[in-house]
């Protein structure tokens, strides 16, 4: 393992890193920094938390001199990531005194316009960058370094055309760096058109099984939230991240956890930027919020330290998304746990995730628990209805164990020496009412009764 100085960084830059307790290069840094310092275009494939920011910032910091004109542009998919990257570059370039500005929507544009007149490095989201270009308040004609961070996420969010418009505004003579968790065909097209003989660097996502424990619970549809509350109350968790697939589910989970007196906050794209920033600051501060419920907007790129538990309240569609989520815990050599809560609507997604042979997710039987009171939005006027608490019983014993043992989430079912493929979707629809909300099973039903088969 080489040192940062051996990779070519100056003593001044290395001193700044040492003050931040960064002394050993990560794999992506070791492979990328020499290429960046040499002025090469780079395509980097590396997961969240691997150290990409220092990898691409090294060339910007070492090779730029302060002149008050925008010489480097970094595009990010989210406001939070833009702010995080800008803060990191500003922190590591103190010895150069570079002016770094984060530019994104959801906040006043007037202050950004004023600061852009004396800025060396701009980090921003595509939409707001285009807004400034259309107003004539951002000049990219002096850009020497162009970085696209989390390219796959930007494409997922529909920024392909915005990115291409911005690239056309940059000088052809520049150094271009593209970073993404996965190097897709779309990214390959972008690289082929907007980079010059790029060097491709790929760092495989690695999950340390000795540090990260992965488990799942398979629970009847009407008990998902009840089990979730039970686990939160029993687990000794420091910082908890809970992932949901939609904003609506985030709000549902957050509201109901607050009813149990838990210190919880939500973050998703429907919140304004000031509130999102405030929530993240509270979650990162000692004695602040210890449960963060979020959509995948928080799974990519954000520097959130000390997360002990990751809950997948909704299972993601792909193993790549799953790895990004659980990558929020078991970092910096610390132990962590990823907990997946499944009901019938999650079987198809979980089947897609569990096909990845690198993932070792172990089933755990549901514990003795109570059905809890929940509040559900019934209409747009905001009216709610509460549902009662049932008697305590062990739901893990009332299941058809033979059926559970025979079901394979990989989409295969064993039959003697033969294996027949079955559709995950068909299996997900095996039980009647699989798309019903949890509240449908909390009211006026024998709680031990599983929905009838068709």
Task: Describe the protein in words.
- The protein is of the alpha/beta class and 454 residues long.
- It folds into 2 domains: 4-202, P-loop containing nucleotide triphosphate hydrolases (Rossmann fold), CATH 3.40.50; 212-441, Rossmann fold (3-Layer(aba) Sandwich), CATH 3.40.50.300.
- 34% of the residues lie in helices and 17% in strands.
- It is built from 17 helices and 18 strands.
- Helix 7 (126-135) packs across helix 9.
- Mean pLDDT is 82; it is low at 379-408 and 410-454.
List the helices and strands and how they pair.
Elements lengths: L3 H4 L3 H9 L7 H11 L4 E4 L6 H12 L8 E4 L3 H14 L7 E4 L5 H7 L5 E4 L1 H10 L9 E4 L2 H6 L3 H9 L6 E6 L4 H10 L4 E4 L9 E7 L5 H11 L4 E5 L3 H13 L4 E4 L5 H12 L6 E4 L12 E6 L6 H8 L9 E7 L4 H8 L7 E2 L11 E3 L6 E3 L14 H6 L5 E4 L2 E4 L2 H5 L26
Parallel strand pairs: 1-6, 1-7, 2-4, 2-5, 3-4, 5-6, 8-13, 8-14, 9-11, 9-12, 10-11, 12-13
Antiparallel strand pairs: 15-16, 17-18
